[in-house]
Automatic annotation (TrEMBL):
Protein name: Uncharacterized protein
Residue ranges occupied by any GEVED domain in the UniProt entry: 78-151
Matches recorded under InterPro entries: GEVED (IPR045474), Secre_tail (IPR026444)
Pfam families per the UniProt record, alphabetical: GEVED, Por_Secre_tail
Signal peptide: none
Length: 248
């Protein structure tokens, strides 16, 4: 699949990217170069190329993004590409923002524009993916992708100020851990993100649930389970994660 954008003199085709589900998290704000776009759940992808951010050659610009969450806040990986040479591709060198956070606050990052960036309108892709880093041309399970237009101007252009927020960092992904592992008697199940009502199921190799409960129980007694490999499935009411458990 391709997505088309019309520039002043030619038409450029870009690869498609989207999520299959944006029910639990979505992009709810993007600000850059005098452009602000606050939205809700757009179904995994939205074409906002009618909205234009203005950036000057050789400039550094503050960008603001934020995530919306239905309930639980998950670790979201952010990436932004700008096609500076207007060749219809998002090269690795054109990735201007990357990082991860589980915050719903405004997140800030700096967008640097090369001094030799081609003047005129071009495409910007903003991608937010649940729990893992993304590529520019990817269809993934959860999150959202939005496309915008950036107008590259001469370096004499004065840029609009952007309001501040929390710096976008690199936060640990949402994972489930079981320890000690292997174990003979007891196991504890922990999540790297807060989930007060998360439940667990321990499943044997035949697919039968042999134990279940709330992960906040503390030590879970597995002494009566047979020796072998098990799958631990944890569900926070919205999403599921799995890990393996070896019973000695």
């Amino acid at each position: 699949n391709t997505v088309n954008v019309t520039t002043l003199s030619n038409q450029v085709s870009y690869c498609a990217s989207k999520s299959n589900r944006s029910t639990y998290e979505w992009i709810d704000n993007v600000e850059l170069g005098g452009m602000t776009n606050a939205t809700g759940d757009n179904g995994g992808y939205e074409d906002f190329t009618s909205k234009v951010a203005t950036l000057a050659q050789g400039s550094s610009n503050q960008m603001v993004v934020s995530a919306g969450f239905r309930s639980t806040a998950y670790t979201e990986h952010w990436a932004v590409w700008i096609d500076f040479n207007q060749d219809g591709t998002f090269a690795d060198s054109e990735k201007v923002v990357s990082g991860s956070s589980s915050s719903a606050n405004n997140l800030t990052a700096t967008v640097a524009v090369p001094a030799n960036a081609t003047l005129g309108n071009t495409r910007m892709r903003v991608s937010m993916k649940y729990n893992a880093a993304q590529t520019a041309c990817e269809t993934f399970a959860d999150g959202e992708v939005e496309d915008y237009t950036v107008n590259i101007t001469s370096s004499s252009t004065k840029l609009a100020d952007v309001r501040s927020g929390d710096p976008l960092g690199n936060e640990q992904s949402f994972e489930v851990m079981a320890f000690p592992n292997p174990t003979a008697d007891f196991v504890q199940i922990k999540l790297t993100s807060k989930a007060d009502n998360a439940t667990y199921r321990i499943v044997n190799t035949l697919g039968r649930v042999v134990k279940s409960g709330n992960i906040n129980e503390g030590n879970i007694n597995v002494s009566k389970l047979s020796t072998g490999m098990y799958i631990i499935n944890v569900n926070d009411g919205q999403k599921s994660l799995t890990t393996k458990l070896l019973k000695k």
